[in-house]
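dude i think i finally got it to work??
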Amino acid sequence: MTPAPPSQHRADKPFRLTRRAEFLRVASAGRRVAVHGLVLQALEREGGGPARLGFTVTRKVGNAVVRNRTRRRLKEVARLYLGAHPIAGVDLVLIGRDSTRGRDFAALTDDLRRALGKLGVAPGGRP
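look at this
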């Protein structure tokens, strides 16, 4: 199987924040809300386009295996929710907490929905 050309992007895979500078920009200039299962940071960006996502889990949550499992849960929640309710013109950083790991998946999805609502990020809208 040959990989898709870089110009094509899979519909179910979100655009990602990958560089530390991008995470720091969202943390310093963006808005932040904490809900039971996660912390969400959002920063409006120029030029619109689909939302870009970043995921992080601190060492306080556990060892590498626990942190990676927590990050995978956040990625899946974001993929499913934002796939059904796309948003644009914003950078989002989802931060995993200790409670993210054991939180029911439906409750975690609701946490993301509530966090986006509290920040005023609506489908197709901006914070």
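The first helix runs from residue 20 to 29.
im so relieved honestly
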